[in-house]
């Protein structure tokens, strides 16, 4: 049997991934978690603005710079218009 993403039984919500691997929909299998899992030995990225080490895997900006600019730390999308705010990072 080959990989298929079809639901075999709606009452039990079991998905057949391969012939030996059956998972339930209510649990996250380790196969899907491992690529995005935190690794303490990998090098952290640096912030694109201040060149400080970023302490969140997959982020491009540190939390201080993201807060000051009003952007998302992971993707850089503008979340808040900070033009009329008096923000401090302290």
TrEMBL record:
Primary localization: cytoplasm
List localization entries: Cytoplasm
Q: Which residues form the signal peptide?
A: none
What does UniProt give as GO cellular component?
A: cytoplasm; dendrite; spliceosomal complex
Which molecular function term from Gene Ontology is one that the record holds? Answer: microtubule binding
Q: Which InterPro entries match?
A: PDZ-binding_CRIPT
Give the family, as the similarity comment puts it. Answer: Belongs to the CRIPT family.
Name this polypeptide is given: Cysteine-rich PDZ-binding protein
> Which gene name belongs to this protein?
cript
